[in-house]
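Fold it.
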Amino acid sequence: MITTCIIVACVAFSFWAFNDANIFNKYLFSAYATYHHKQYYRLFTHAFLHGDYMHLGFNMYALYLFGQVLEEQYFPTLFQEKAVFYYILLYVGGIFFSSLFDFIKQRDNPSYSSVGASGAVTAIVFSAILINPTMGMGILFIPFFIPAWSFGGLYLIYSWYMGKRQLDNIGHNAHFWGAVFGFVFTILLKPALLPRFFTEIF
């Protein structure tokens, strides 16, 4: 029930912060405050906050879809008694590693801030893509699917490009590095998954 507990925690904390600006500002990810004021807790607490109800809804929906199958099917099959421990490490590691790029890049920028579980969620999604690269994936409300490996490749290219351009307020760098972490971390846990990934594609 780890996925359910994470969703409940994110919803509860986000709703609290929606109604209390002091809580929102205290726990969001500020690279400047993290570095200069040693508020390292912000590297993790921001993942339980969201910018609005739509942001929260999309992240929790994706976490529910992919987190449940990873927690209840894929990881128990691959890792047996270590499945829960590895799943928690995947999620927490996704939060941390998805924040590192912008922490380093923005640590002297007091105006930069971000919130959201997107980095951890993309780590979950890309772990699932590695394990089952031929499953169908698509975009919400668009009625067709493509193989997960091709969706993942397009998503990485898009996130990298948008992160370079910085045309909006979406954390594309967190998406990109969260995805990379989820993919690589799962390979490190089970190296045999990488050749199987390519075998299933080709």
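Residues 2-201 form a domain with the Rhomboid-like fold fold (CATH 1.20.1540.10).
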